[in-house]
């Protein structure tokens, strides 16, 4: 288990200092596939480098299984990294690259060669042991980097956008490969990515980050269906964010009103929001399209266009307050036509700003 | 044609650039003139080193007699050995110091006075050599008097000092081009700082170190001015010996020795470029 406690990281000194991470606290459970997700510059790589030991925290502490490691040198931490560009040693063979960690740990020769073979099998590169690394393809280099980082059996494996240099097809293959490796080894994987699809597909838990702070931690389903803030809803993608009025609370439900139709009791990210204008997440697949005059309509607008995608159509609509929303429907309406919208209130979700 | 600066660097820009340049009037003529004046003297020197004649202006027939004479000449052999001893020792010291300086300035993080340190290391390249020579001469005279130490060590020390910036440049260039992630990866894989250096930094830096060493060697081997002032009696290097002979007129023997010196220098420089291109 990694325990990140109130970690702040500033680069530079004095006035021009940049705060890359501001008071971040996070618990990464042992044996999990944990993803740090966020746009570039959100601090996710800085957090990874702090766990690896390439940077030291300006404030706060990082503990691994209860032991503080935040101020140890990289070679003193039982943590290994798969680098974005792999950083395989170009002057060593594939086998020597994989064995490097164990060699530095002064393990017996026999153990090193056994582990190298195990690792080559694990990443299916058995025939490449004596190759030079520059004779390998990108995907193969990726697997060598994985094998090299796994060979010393670290407590934690850090992966810094390791799939971003691969083409789409290879990336899909490596996603399931990584999940398999994590499952087989039981090692905690901390995975950094800016690709929300990748994060949702692979992770046990996701921490969504922006501007040096963790915005939400949860399972992919929680992040996808119950985004806490506008930022998370927006970043995870294709959720509509619609304006509504918060009237008050009823138990753990928020009472909201869209300007017409009935008052709805819906889930809220926080029960401490002030009554007044709020933003509500509305998933495209939960929207139904009604005739403009329908009394049950909660919102009204006009159709911009629609795209057929096999299982249905994706309609773009402009609400009367100017907000653009997307709805997945079976039978799209013609562009320009006026419609009413309704949404399953169980799937609505009030966001923090 | 507009210059696509910043969009397509490298090959594309260079090809269009040189084509533009070649269309300029007189381009070819000037190029040939420059090449002529750069290399014709050397060519003449080499040709007459094979001349079977005392004259260095009138060709008679091909012969290796001046090479035989040069190699049989005890003074030439002695001064060549001193040159080699000084150049090799100075190269080793200068390269080690330059490597350490490069590591400190390229990998030591942002320490106070780093820019000043880089400038100070490179400054000797900008100071007129005669100034360095006179300064070294007087400084060493003081030190010699104070310590009472004499010998070739002083000359080696002087050579080491002026070789450092030459060794430093290619080493630092290589180090700056080398992403620090290799060293981070090694540290991540449990290599302590000195192991990182031994197993990763140094092997990857080696082409730069070799290039630096060879530049230092050539610069030391060729040096006249500082050597002339600093060298004590019996410490005549090959260039100084040649200079002494020239005062009595150019002889084919000197041509032969010079040709050997050119061959060694060219070989070293060529090797340097090959090493720099390797693994790039």
UniProtKB/TrEMBL annotation, chain A:
InterPro entries: AAA+_ATPase, ABC_SmlMolc_Importer, ABC_transporter-like_ATP-bd, ABC_transporter-like_CS, Mo/tungstate-bd_C_term_dom, P-loop_NTPase, PotA-like, Transp-assoc_OB_typ2
Molecular function per GO: ABC-type polyamine transporter activity; ATP binding; ATP hydrolysis activity
Keywords per UniProt: ATP-binding, Cell membrane, Membrane, Nucleotide-binding, Translocase, Transport
Keyword Transport: yes
This protein's record includes keyword Iron-sulfur: no
SMART domains cross-referenced by the UniProt entry: AAA (SM00382)
BP-aspect Gene Ontology terms: putrescine transport
Catalytic EC class: translocase
Catalysis: reaction(s): ATP + H2O + polyamine-[polyamine-binding protein]Side 1 = ADP + phosphate + polyamineSide 2 + [polyamine-binding protein]Side 1
Top-rank lineage group of the source organism: Bacteria
One Gene Ontology CC term in the entry: ATP-binding cassette (ABC) transporter complex
EC number(s) stated in the UniProt entry for this protein: 7.6.2.11
Pfam families: ABC_tran (PF00005), TOBE_2 (PF08402)
Record domain ABC transporter: where: 2-236
Subunit (UniProt): The complex is composed of two ATP-binding proteins (PotA), two transmembrane proteins (PotB and PotC) and a solute-binding protein (PotD).
PANTHER family: SPERMIDINE/PUTRESCINE IMPORT ATP-BINDING PROTEIN POTA, SPERMIDINE_PUTRESCINE IMPORT ATP-BINDING PROTEIN POTA
Family named by the database record: Belongs to the ABC transporter superfamily. Spermidine/putrescine importer (TC 3.A.1.11.1) family.
Entry function: Part of the ABC transporter complex PotABCD involved in spermidine/putrescine import. Responsible for energy coupling to the transport system.
Protein name: Spermidine/putrescine import ATP-binding protein PotA
Lineage: Bacteria, Pseudomonadati, Pseudomonadota, Alphaproteobacteria, Rhodobacterales
TrEMBL record, chain B:
GO cellular component: plasma membrane
Domain ABC transmembrane type-1: 80-272
Cross-referenced CDD domains: TM_PBP2 (cd06261)
InterPro entries the UniProt entry points to: Bact_Polyamine_Transport (IPR051789), MetI-like (IPR000515), MetI-like_sf (IPR035906)
A family per Pfam: BPD_transp_1
Keyword Transport among record annotations: yes
Keyword Nuclease assigned: no
Annotated TM spans: 26-50, 80-104, 125-143, 149-168, 204-231, 256-275
Gene3D superfamilies: MetI-like
Cellular localization per UniProt: Cell inner membrane; Cell membrane
Topology relative to the membrane: Multi-pass membrane protein
Xref: SUPFAM superfamilies: MetI-like
Signal peptide span: none
Location (main, coarse): membrane
GO biological process: transmembrane transport
Swiss-Prot/TrEMBL keywords: Cell inner membrane, Cell membrane, Membrane, Transmembrane, Transmembrane helix, Transport
Protein purpose: Required for the activity of the bacterial periplasmic transport system of putrescine and spermidine.
Family named by the database record: Belongs to the binding-protein-dependent transport system permease family. CysTW subfamily.
Protein's name according to its UniProt entry: Spermidine/putrescine transport system permease protein PotC
């Amino acid at each position: 288990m990694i325990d990140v406690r109130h970690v702040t990281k500033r680069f530079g000194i004095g006035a021009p200092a940049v705060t890359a991470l501001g008071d971040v606290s996070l618990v990464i459970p042992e044996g999990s596939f944990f993803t740090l997700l966020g746009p570039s510059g959100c601090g996710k790589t800085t957090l990874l480098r702090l766990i690896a030991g390439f940077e030291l925290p300006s404030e706060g502490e990082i503990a691994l299984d209860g032991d503080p490691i935040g101020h140890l040198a990289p070679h003193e931490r039982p943590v290994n990294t798969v680098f974005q560009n792999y950083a395989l040693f170009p002057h060593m063979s594939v086998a020597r690259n994989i064995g490097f960690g164990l060699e530095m740990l002064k393990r017996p020769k026999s153990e090193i060669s056994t582990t190298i073979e195990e690792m080559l099998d694990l990443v299916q590169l058995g025939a490449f042991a004596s190759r030079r690394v520059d004779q390998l393809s990108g995907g193969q280099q990726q697997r060598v980097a994985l094998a090299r980082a796994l060979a010393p059996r670290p407590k934690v494996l850090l992966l810094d956008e390791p799939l971003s240099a691969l083409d789409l097809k290879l990336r899909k293959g490596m996603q399931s490969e990584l999940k398999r490796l994590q499952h087989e080894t039981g090692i905690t994987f901390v995975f950094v990515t800016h690709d929300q699809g990748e994060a949702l597909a692979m992770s046990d838990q996701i921490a969504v980050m922006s501007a040096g702070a963790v915005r939400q931690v949860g399972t992919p389903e929680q992040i996808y269906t119950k985004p806490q803030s506008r930022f998370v809803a927006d970043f995870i993608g294709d959720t509509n964010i619609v304006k509504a009025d918060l009237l008050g609370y009823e138990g753990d439900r928020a009472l909201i009103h869209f300007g017409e139709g009935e008052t709805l009791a819906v889930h809220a990210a926080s029960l401490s929001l002030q009554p007044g204008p709020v933003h509500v997440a509305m998933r495209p697949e939960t929207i139904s399209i009604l005739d403009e005059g329908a009394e049950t309509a909660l919102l009204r607008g006009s159709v911009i266009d629609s795209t057929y995608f096999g299982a249905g159509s994706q309609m773009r609509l402009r609400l009367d307050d100017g907000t653009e929303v997307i709805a997945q429907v079976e039978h799209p309406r013609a562009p320009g036509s006026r419609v009413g919208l309704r949404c399953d209130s169980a799937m609505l979700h009030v966001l923090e700003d | 044609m507009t210059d696509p600066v910043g969009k397509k660097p490298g090959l594309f820009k260079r090809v269009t650039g040189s084509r533009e340049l070649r269309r300029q009037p007189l381009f070819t003529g000037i190029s040939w003139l420059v090449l002529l004046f750069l290399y014709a003297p050397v060519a003449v020197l080499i040709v007459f080193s094979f001349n079977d004649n005392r004259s260095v202006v009138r060709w008679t027939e091909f012969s290796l007699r001046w090479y035989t004479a040069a190699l049989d000449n005890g003074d030439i052999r002695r001064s060549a050995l001193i040159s080699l001893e000084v150049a090799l020792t100075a190269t080793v010291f200068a390269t080690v110091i330059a490597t350490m300086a490069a590591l400190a300035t390229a990998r030591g993080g942002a320490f106070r006075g780093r820019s000043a340190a880089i400038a100070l290391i490179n400054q000797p390249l900008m100071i007129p050599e005669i100034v360095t020579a006179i300064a070294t001469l007087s400084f060493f005279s003081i030190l010699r008097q104070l310590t009472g130490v004499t010998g070739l060590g002083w000359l080696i020390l002087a050579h080491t000092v002026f070789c450092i910036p030459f060794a430093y440049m290619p080493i630092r260039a290589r180090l700056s081009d080398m992403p620090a992630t290799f060293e981070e990866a090694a540290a991540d894989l449990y290599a302590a700082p000195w192991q990182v250096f031994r197993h990763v930094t140094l092997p990857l830096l080696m082409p730069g170190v070799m290039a630096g060493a060879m530049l230092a060697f050539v610069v030391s081997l060729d040096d006249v001015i500082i050597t002339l002032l600093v060298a004590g009696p019996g410490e005549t290097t090959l260039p100084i010996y040649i200079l002494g002979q020239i005062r009595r007129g150019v002889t084919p023997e000197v041509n032969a020795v010079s040709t050997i010196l050119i061959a060694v220098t060219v070989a070293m420089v060529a090797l340097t470029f090959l090493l720099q291109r390797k693994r790039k």
